[in-house]
Amino acid sequence: IRSLQQQLVVVQRALALQGHSRERALALHCAYYHYARTEPTLFLCLLTATMPAVLEKNSAARLAQRQQLEQQLAGICAEVIHEAVAAGALTLPAASVVDGWSFLHWAYALGSNLLFEPSRQIGLFSNLQPEQQLQTGLHILLDGMQWQPLSQHWDYQRSWQRISQQLQ
Questions:
Q1: What is the C-alpha to C-alpha distance for residues 134 and 115, in angstroms, rounded to an integer?
Q2: For residue range 83-126, what is the model confidence (pLDDT) as tens digits?
Q3: Integer CA distances (angstroms), 166 to 9, 13, 19, 30, 158, in order
Q4: Which segments of the chain does DSSP mark as H helices, in order?
Q5: Does the reported pTM lie above 0.90?
């Protein structure tokens, strides 16, 4: 719960930053990346907390509190997607729902942040720069969604740097 509360603070700060909708999505990913790097133990606690042996030891009140915090985080991601659709920067396929696209963002952010540090500790991917790799994968995802402006039309490296500075 403490980890989720801290993540919520960081993500809300990112959501308050100015920029077009894709930069706001980038800000959420940037905030999540920085949280994972500055609070690695709390970040990894979220994974541990989903294990059945841990879940069954929680009270119903604690599980409800956790669910409420996770719903707030998911709602922030959905909010940015809704803004992008409203602004005309993103068109959702007819069969698509915002929750599904929010899930893809969360899965990408969680997976990439979870895999990098342990993999590097055992010598895997040691030639990759985590921050750069995260951004590359994110632009593949966002370009694949046709989220405007596409990466070839905007300097998102500069956006990432600006966002990182504003989040500090």
A1: 11
A2: 999 999 999 987 678 999 999 999 999 999 988 876 666 777 77
A3: 14, 9, 12, 11, 12
A4: 2-15, 21-38, 40-48, 52-55, 60-87, 98-121, 130-144, 156-167
A5: yes
